Structures are given as structure tokens and as C-alpha cells.
Amino acid sequence: MTALTATGKHALISETAEELYDQAPCGYLSADADGMIIRANRKVADLSGRSVEEMTGQVRLQELLTVGGRIYYETHVGPLLLMQGHVEEIALDIRGPDGAVPVLLNAELRRRSSGEVIGIRASVLDATERRRYERELLAARNQAEEAARMKSELISMVSHDIRTPLAALSTVGELLELSSLDEDQAGYVRMLKSSTNNLLRLVNDVLDLGKLESGRMRLVKKPVNVRQLVSGVADEARVEAERKGLRFDVDIDSGLPSRLLTDAIKLGRVLSNLLSNAVKFTERGEVSMAVRLLENEGDHVRVRFTVRDTGIGIQKDQLECIFDDFTQGSDEISYRYGGSGLGLGICKKFLALHGADLSVDSAPGERTSFYFDLDMEQAAPESDPGT
Q: How many CB atoms lie within 10 A of CB 258?
């Protein structure tokens, strides 16, 4: 077999490279400093509906584009190309035989050693499928957002309709407790109140979750006596704890300022939920809440809230998922203790609005502690109305 000469090898390589250039699935073209096309491959011809011969030396790069694409190229792409020497993945539309064809343009300037621009090398990638996929993705997102909005509105409407009669039932239960009842009747009233309160808590959780998911939940910070707030929440949980025979302790730092700026409703909901869970999941031992002043600098304070119990604890592999909506530690816990699995997730979201995070430490079968640090500003002392 006769060996190829150096000239023959060079010719073969050039011919192969030319064939690869012409048959490439991506469009390639070269233009002079004025944008006049001096070379293009078959893909550019297919995209534009012109032959290579019709383009070469007769059509400028900008003239391949739609009217809008040409304006954008001349006002944005061209100046950017001159400034930085290259552009990448610029979305434009080429005038094709059957209408606009979306493409992605990559281009770089060719310069002499003196810096003078002598031409442009560019590639154009057919982005038809990509554009179609983006439209479908956008349409799917819009549909999902609309479905979420309608769901939130339906939940809000239904929940409000349910909450009104439940509130009336709760009031009736409280009035019945004040009347003369025998032991059986008193038991029925306690059952009525417990069930009503559980339903009200669930409805409130669902309403809050809807607002949180839609981004409509906002903080309303006002001067609050945090010591009174904590004591009030604790008194509500103390009743059930004592009924179960649990020790119940509340320890509030004596240095805690009397008035702090915070959202009392959301902070109260978080503490109430944590205490309620602690009492629910503890059969013997104690439940406690501690409020500690960590920092007090000028008007700024940092306070740590901790709720501890000696209940069933949480398995290590469940410590993260317990904050997911509608999730509890296990099916057995859900069956035994009930609940929707919304409370801890809502607590974590409420605290996120405050810029805080809810943490947990637990030993299964022994104890659980939930805690968070809250940054607050001191409020001015309450004025004396008599002065």
C-alpha cells in the first residue's frame, strides 16, 4: 500500500474537516467586520431557508434575524460583543422558511494583533425544542400556582365556615361546666370541650398553613410583656399536665425586660404547641419551660425558649422529618396520640418569620427538648395614664 505524502495527508485532513463543518448539527458561520457572511454551513442554510451560496457575500448576520431579533442584536448583542469580545447563549429568532426559528447564538470577535476587528465567528443552535419545553414548563407552573391559589381559597373559606360553629360549641362547653352536673355529665362536657378544642386547633393550623404557603403570613410586632405571655400559655398547659399527674415547672429569667417588641400571637402559638405536645407525649415525670436571657446589649436582647419533657422521645432518624407538614414520628404514634402532624412544621415556619430556627434534642424513651433563640428589641416602658 502506497504511503500518503505530507501534501496528501494535509488534503485528506482538510477535506474531512470541511465535511464535518458542513454536516455539523449546529450552525456555524463566519462574517467580516461589517457582519457580511463569508462562510456558513448547511445547518445555517436550513435554519434560514437560504442556500449557502445565497448567503455568502450577500447577507449580513443581522439580516438572518427577525425584526425584533435584529433590533436586539444591534442595540444589545453587538455592543456587548465589541466590549467583551464574545457572547454566549444569546436567545434570538432567525427568519426561517416557515416563520421564526428560536436559536442560541455564541459568537466571538476575530482581531489582528493590533486589536483591529477583522471578523466574527459564530455558532447558532436550534432552540425550538428548548423553547417549547420552557413554554410547557411555564404553563405547568402557572397551572400549579393557580391550583394552589384555588386550594388555599377553598381551605380558607371552608375553615372559616367550620370555625364559627366550633367556637360556639366551645362556649357552650364552658357554660355547661359552670352549671350543676353529675359525674357522668361532667365527663361528657370534658369530652365535648376536648374534641372541640382539638378541632379548633386543627382548623387554625390549616388556615395558618394556607397563609404560610401563599406568602400572606406577616409578622405584627407590638410591645409585649413576654413574662405575662409565657405565664398565660403555661397556665393553659398546666391544667392538662396536672390532670395526668405530671410535674409542671416554668422558670423565667429574672433579668428579662418587661416589654419587648414581638408578634405575641405567633410566639404564643409556638409555645402553646410545644407545651401541648410535651404534655401529650409524656405519661410520667415532668414537663418544663425555661426562658433565659442570653444577650442584653442596649435595646437588643436575645432570649432562649426551651420546652423539656420526660416523654417517649424521638428516634434519631425521625428528628428531621418531624418538621414536615402532615408528618409524625411513626404511624404508631399517630394512631396512639392522634394529631394532624402540622404543629411542629407551622412552629418552624412561624419562627423563620422571626429569623429564628426551632431545634430539637432527644433521647428515645427518656426525654425531648425543643428550643429556639429569639432576637427582640426592647419597647419603651408603658406610660402611666395618670401622669
A: 14
Q: What does CATH list as the number for 21-128?
A: 3.30.450.20
For 189-209, the pLDDT digits (tens) are 888 877 787 777 777 777 777
Q: Where are the domains of the chain?
A: 21-128, 133-214, 222-378
Q: Of the CATH numbers 3.40.50.300, 3.30.565.10, 3.40.1190.20, 3.40.630.30, which one belongs to the domain with range 222-378?
A: 3.30.565.10
pLDDT given for residue 335 in this prediction:
44
Residue 95, helix vs strand vs coil: strand
Q: Which residues of the chain have pLDDT under 50?
A: 1, 335, 337, 387
- Predicted local confidence at residue 48, as pLDDT: 93
The answer to whether the CB of 110 falls within 8 A of the CB of 86 is: no
Q: What pLDDT was estimated at residue 233?
A: 93
Residue 149, C-beta contacts closer than 8 angstroms, at least 6 positions apart? 214
Residue 75, SS3 per DSSP? helix
With CA atoms as reference, report the closest residue to 258 among 114, 382, 118, 102: 382
Q: How distant, in Å, are the alpha carbons of 216, 237, 254, 347 from that of 148?
A: 13, 35, 46, 22
Distance CA 375, CA 54 (A): 71
Characterize 21-52 residue by residue with b for buried, 16 or more Cβ atoms within 10 angstroms of its Cβ, and e for exposed.
Answer: eeeeeebbbbbbeebbbebbbebbbebbebee
CATH architecture observed for domain 133-214: Orthogonal Bundle (1.10)
| Residue 103 φ/ψ, nearest 5 degrees | -135, 165
**Model confidence, pTM:** 0.57
